[in-house]
Specification:
The protein is about 15% helix and about 40% strand. By secondary structure, it is of the alpha+beta class. The C terminus is likely disordered.
């Protein structure tokens, strides 16, 4: 089962966790400093919260898949349709080990296709910043950016 991921920047993580716990009737699946995520069954949604000074904005959107093959298929489909992706990366970010690819829409909204392959206590190369897993926007003229 795939599900859509919505990653939001929030100004007060505790207040946001309380709100979304009530809204969806479930507690976060994972909590770390400045970070929480919910695995919501109905509607099928992965909700990720990042505490930032610029709360109230979309951090990124994503599609969580069942396996690395689905990420590879998405990357191939996106590339063949003329979109520029980051390519497939095995990475540690958002407190998880992942296989992922990223694409950016015309207005700069980042989309991630990914599968979680394991848990990680530390972030990747981003020095612990919660938003590190979202690479710089990919444009037609850019080369492949790295995660974090």
């Amino acid at each position: 089962m795939s599900r859509v991921q919505l990653a939001l920047n929030v100004s007060d993580l505790e207040e946001a966790v309380q709100f979304y716990s009530r809204l969806f009737g479930t507690e976060p699946a994972k909590r770390n400093p400045g970070y929480a995520n919910f695995a919501i069954a109905d509607p099928p949604l992965k909700l990720v919260l990042f505490e930032t000074e610029t709360g109230g904005t979309i951090n990124h959107l994503g599609v969580e898949t069942d396996g690395a093959a689905a990420v590879e298929e998405a990357d191939t489909r996106l590339t063949q349709s003329g979109l520029v992706t980051t390519g497939i990366d095995d990475t540690i970010c958002c407190y998880a080990e992942k296989v992922e690819t990223w694409v950016t829409d015309p207005d700069g909204t980042r989309w991630e296709w990914y599968v979680k392959t394991g848990d990680a206590e530390e972030m990747g190369e981003g020095g612990g910043e919660a938003a590190c897993c979202a690479p710089a926007p990919v444009t037609l003229s850019s080369s492949k950016p790295g995660c974090c």
